[in-house]
Amino acid sequence: MKKVLLKIGGMTCSACSSGLEKFLNRQDGIESASVNLVMNNANIQYDEQKLTLEQIEKFVEKAGFESLGIDNFQKEGKKQNNQKYKLIVLGFLAILTLYISMGQMIGLPAIPYLDMHHNPINYSIALLVLALLACIFGWDILKNGYKNLIHKSPNMDTLVGLGVLSSILYSLYGTIMILRGNTEYVDNLYYESAVIIIFFIKIGKFVENRNKDKTKEAISQLMMITPKHATVLKDGKQVQVTIDEINEGDIVICKPGEKIAVDGEIVDGITHIDESFITGESMPVKKDIGKKVIAGSINYEGTIEYKAEKIGKNSTVSEIVKLVVEATSTKAPIAKIADKISGYFVPVIMLIAFVSGIVWWIIGKDISFAINVFISVLVVACPCSLGLATPLSIVIASGEASRKGILIKNSEALENAHKVKTIVFDKTGTLTKGKLSLSKIFNYTNAEKDSNNILSDDDIIKIVASIEAKSEHPIAKGIVEEAKERKIEIEKVKKFENVAGLGVTAEYNNEKYIIGNRKLMEQNNIETLENRTLSKQIEKDEETLQKEGNSILFVAKNNQLLALLGVKDNVKDNVVEVIKKLKKKNIKVIMLTGDNEKTAKSIASSIGIDDVIAGVMPKDKAKIVEDLKKDKELVMMCGDGINDSVSLVKADIGVSVGSGTDVAMDSSDIVLMNDNLEKIIDLIDISKSTIRNIKQNLFWAFFYNLCMLPIAVGAFSTFGIIINPMMASIAMTISSITVTLNSLRLKRIIRKIK
After folding, report:
1. Is 669 in the active site?
2. Range list for CATH 3.40.50.1000 in the chain
3. What is the largest CA-CA distance in the chain?
4. Which of 334, 413, 559, 603 is the most exposed, having the fewest neighbouring CB atoms within 10 Å of its CB?
């Protein structure tokens, strides 16, 4: 199966997007298709053995829309400017039409030779010409409405098109009668309704497009984050090139204040880099040789040289944009409901319009009243705002979340995050830093009577680090890292031997050292363990280290124990606060780990987690997650994405924590771009705010329809309350603008979440 994201032209409402989606999903060879109204694109998964991209684009055209090629996520500024100028001209036509048709009613002087009573023929022909010109500007509406009606997927444009054509055809009949001498028909012309309907619909679409562009602001900013030029080393010289000219393997130079041009690895220099745009963390990160850099991040101080690794579509920024756009193209459950409603809504409104118009005509109202009702119902009930209600909020939430370092890969996860009742945390790499470090030293050399044998803690670390530098064990790496931080020089050793599962031995300064667990000490008959007094102290210290969750290293020289070293994976800085906040939200927190129960409970107790499941192999974690889901409550699994892939998939929502630049995690629904678990709280709050915003949008979308539809059908005409098609178009436009403005309000709400 292959995926493609196509830019779609000609969509105007949810009936458009849902109609195209249904049409595509019916085609042989298309596995799935999801159409996004706000992003104007279609996310299509298809069998490349059966279909080509050209054939898929023909399906889109057959459905009545236009394929604009593969979506590159760029704003269509030029097209928007053209629409603005057309709208200005259309506005002039609308004002002129209103002046000619209604100016005299409010006391304005009549235009010579266009007076409706003295020059009815000129009057009617002038309005006909203006109406036809307006139809040229609104041709896209009429064409799309017709195509969708033919394909049995009537949409907003269908309703508007029927209303406009009904006005013009009835008025054209009146014009013919006027030309025949029946001047009384001059009072039954509806040309101005057709012009004003097109004008207000165009205003609504223009405002919606402007606001839809604003919802894509975060995505656009990501696309613009990388610099246009960079400095590359070529034959020992610094050469300035465009970003497109950089190739993999090129050495790129970045000076203080400049942006990183492409993803890469530092080969020379040291600096601090601001990666906040991608991780959401405001503090600069220290970077030196061997560390990765991300395109678009800002170099604060030192000049660095880095080797280009990921360029163009393979860059971290491009992958993030792609995943965010794909997320907005997936359907949240609440969006599916709205799409289903709008799919039935248009045919029902068409039926109501026809029935109400015919009924009024049958019971004795004149034909002009019946047509007025028919057109008003069609226009006032357009479901444009209903189609915008959900996708606008989803796009804004996904874009703003990405700015905070939260990458949402599907909108269903965004909708459900605030409903989570249980969160399962993997320990290593999720709750802890995933890197072992020295936590405590018990030095026994000061118990020796010979002062020449007394060693400082740094002396012991130097010995152990020099020996462990030859080992690849995580504990060994932790000791070596400690030596580096203390600026202790590592020396060469001889006769290094790895004793599998127990420890290591080596010669350092012509003395034999044994480093490992208690069993290795016993096998080598370490004398100090036979010393009863010191032995009791060692046992006590050993127990202390175990309670604190340490792995223990015994360090012996020849046959004499020198020290105990505690090495452990430290808990992340803000974990305790995160657990407290989750408990306040009445969310059950569980630690799931492969560690032994004693160590796991020690760590869990220190951070406030009461429920611990320890000694679990990676393959068994998924089974535990499935068992937790049996309570019918939503379960979120948070892991580092390495050993937890199966359990992340099995959970209702899988969150990959601390993935850094590895954004293409297939197993998770949400990717946190750094190690800050507080982003989970942000995710829950963003989800809650988004769903609240969507519900508000749906309320406003239906509110105008429910209020105006009874008036449009003439239910209150006996009380003199009725609307004409012009007022109907204004009400419909207000509905769409209300929804878009409320959606944009979500951006401000999310930015306040900390």
Report:
1. no
2. 395-423+573-681
3. 130
4. 559
576 touches 608 (CB < 8 A): yes
Instruction: Give the other-Cβ count within 10 Å of 86's Cβ.
Output: 15
CATH superfamily of this structure's domain 395-423+573-681: HAD superfamily/HAD-like (3.40.50.1000)
d(CA 353, CA 100) in angstroms, rounded, equals: 29
CA distance 307 to 618: 35
Task: Count Cβ atoms within 10 A of the Cβ of residue 422 and give its class: 0-12 exposed, 13-18 middle, 19 or more buried.
Answer: buried
| Cα–Cα distance measured from residue 178 to residue 511, given in angstroms and rounded to the nearest whole number | 119
For 269-322, list the strands marked E by DSSP: 271-274, 285-287, 292-293, 298-299, 304-310
CA distances from 181 to 66, 119, 178, 186, 188 (A): 46, 12, 5, 11, 14
328 contacts 17 by C-beta, under 8 angstroms: no
Interatomic CA distance for residues 95 and 87, integer angstroms: 12
Overall average pLDDT of the 288-317 stretch: 84
Question: How many angstroms separate the first and last alpha carbons of the chain?
Answer: 40
* pLDDT score of 204 more than 80: no
For residues 410 and 412, what is the distance between their CA atoms, to the nearest angstrom?
6
In the chain, CATH 3.40.1110.10 covers 433-570
Task: In whole angstroms, give the CA distance from residue 288 to residue 286.
Answer: 7
Closest of 729, 713, 727 to residue 365, by C-alpha: 713
Adjacent-strand bridge partners of 547: none
Token pair recorded at residue 598: 């004693």
* pLDDT value, residue 60: 87
CA 106 to chain centre: 53
- The catalytically annotated residue of 426, 669, 675, 685 is 426
CA triple 76-82-84, angle to 5 deg: 105
Q: Which helix (H) or strand (E) holds 107?
A: none
> Tell me, what DSSP letter sits at residue 259?
B
Secondary-structure class of domain 227-314 per CATH: mainly beta
Q: Which CATH architecture has domain 433-570?
A: 3-Layer(aba) Sandwich (3.40)
Domain 2-77 has CATH 3.40.190.10: no
Structural contact between residues 401 and 363, judged by C-beta atoms closer than 8 angstroms: no
Task: Read off the tokens for 339.
Answer: 């799409």
Phi, psi (rounded to 5 degrees) for 575: -60, -45
Alpha-carbon separation of residue 198 from 59, 131, 194 (angstroms): 29, 10, 6
pTM (2 d.p.): 0.64
Assign 294 to helix, strand or coil: coil
Query: How remote is the C-alpha of 428 from its chain's centroid?
Result: 27
Q: What is the DSSP letter of 28?
A: T
Share of the chain above pLDDT 90, in %: 14
Look at 236 and 737; give whichever has higher pLDDT.
Answer: 236
